[in-house]
DNA sequence: GTAGATCCTCACGCCGCGTGAGGATCAAGG
DNA sequence: CCTTGATCCTCACGCGGCGTGAGGATCTAC
């Protein structure tokens, strides 16, 4: 059985040796070669890659920067700088830190939502529920999308940490207004009020007004937004409306909004 | 100029209407159709898609589950269940929460590293430095990869929060042992000691022994691991060795490890 | 000389769409 | 009825960072 290692004198490395030593795959090194990020300093007569010590050092730097979350293109650019240009590298890392911070907040928000949903599933199971639980849950799912689309179009992750500051009275007031609006909408749906009807125009205006609360002002804006953001699921959980009804309302709402 | 909205009776939707109303692009709906996640319930004679209310509800559910971080394949599977199967959906969401938690910890670890590096760059700039700063920084980069490869091959994200518990005396002890080993290695490099030399075998054994500290035991394992994890950069910052020397050491180390 | 390991170069696949290309179809105004 | 502009259709390539073969050449050790 043949052994794997020789590479006698000169300190040069085959691609497999380098890969095993550095903890990457051969395919990865091929890829780096393809995109021009790291090519072997030399080749044998038959075309096999021979990596020099300089290549090894470059590979180590590449992997380190990759562990910091930088995309390969940026790594190439960073290692192409005169190497004594600390300032540009510092800027790059700062931008990366910013990116990761933003991303971490988004992940945090999704985690919160998931936890919220799970706790709701459990509690509804315990209660036994006057309404079939799956229906209620599906309604909740649908309402999540609606609320996301209509109330928080921009960056809502900025205010994900403000949730505890909200008074429950304001939440109750919003609940009431929301509930009244939805019930009125459902009545229109049941009665088959045509979309062109003036009362619908008024209803849509009221609906948008609630939304507009979150587009004006400065601090109230943030507070109101996070209120809706954080309690949207809680609000929908209290709704006594069936998924069928909601589907009708959704369709209705879309049509009404699309009208001039 | 023609208007955009008609869709007269029946409550059916063209693809553009649905897209605008739900906040997705037409291409996205095409994609959902391609992968069989959401196809329009009907088509016109000429082949244009007509979405029914049932389709709309399905789309809302899809988007909601997507906001929770689920991949489209899982969403398709989840919505294919009898829809009154809350248990399986609960399991799915729990798994998702687990995934996101693990991922969030990884992101957190990368952020810590980035902050650490940035502070080091700033401090070295202020000090003026006896060694050229870029060289030192590049050494640090290279050492990050080495430490990652040799000391924490498995899941180190589990213990990212234990950092403050470590006594500084143990850190100092580790620093001393580490420094001694590296210096000895550098001496071998300078003297050109052949890799096959018995002393090198002994040196590699000692090197691996430090690594093995982190693969045995139970609590010591976690503590020692996080110690190396969190202080690896700090250790390398104190090293008075040049990048050139390190490159040689790295190459040397790789060869010695690859030897039988 | 031969076996088995390692090397080479294509080239497609993943995921969730973006971004055209090139052509058919729709609704409304003249 | 015809035009006009918006909207619709179906391909099909692109992204990032490789994984995973296919099919063949080359290495090393016995």
Instruction: Tell me the series of helices and strands of chain A, N- to C-terminal.
Output: HHEEHHHHHHHH
Rg from Cα of chain A: 29 Å
Order of adjacent strands in the largest pleated sheet of chain A: 1-2
Mean pLDDT of chain A: 65
Beta-strand residue percentage of chain A: under 5%
**How many distinct helices of chain A?**
10
Sequence stretches where pLDDT stays below 50 over 5 or more residues of chain A:
1-9, 126-132, 150-172, 208-248, 250-260
Please, how many domains of chain A? Answer: 2
Percentage of residues assigned to helices of chain A: 55-70%
Euclidean distance between termini CA atoms of chain A: 80 Å
Q: What does the oligomeric state look like here?
A: homodimer
Total DSSP E strands of chain A:
2
What characteristic shape of chain A results from the CA principal axes?
A: elongated
Description of the molecule:
The structure is a homodimer of 260-residue chains. Chain A is an all-alpha fold and 260 residues long. Chain A folds into 2 domains: 15-90, Multidrug-efflux Transporter Regulator, Chain: A, Domain 2, CATH 1.10.1660; 108-258, no CATH class. Chain A is 68% helix and 2% strand. The first copy, chain A, is built from 10 helices and 2 strands, in the order ααββαααααααα. Chain A has helices spanning 15-22, 26-34, 53-67, 72-80, 86-127, 133-151, 168-191, 198-212, 219-237, 243-258, and strands at 42-43, 49-50. A two-stranded antiparallel sheet of chain A has the order 1-2. Chain A is elongated and about 85 Å long. The first copy, chain A, starts with 14 loop residues before the first helix and ends with a helix. Residues 1-9, 126-132, 150-172, 208-248 and 250-260 of chain A have low confidence and may be disordered. Chains A and B meet through helix 1, helix 3, helix 5, helix 6 and helix 10 of A and helix 1, helix 3, helix 5, helix 6 and helix 10 of B. Chain A binds a DNA duplex (30 and 30 nucleotides) through helix 2.
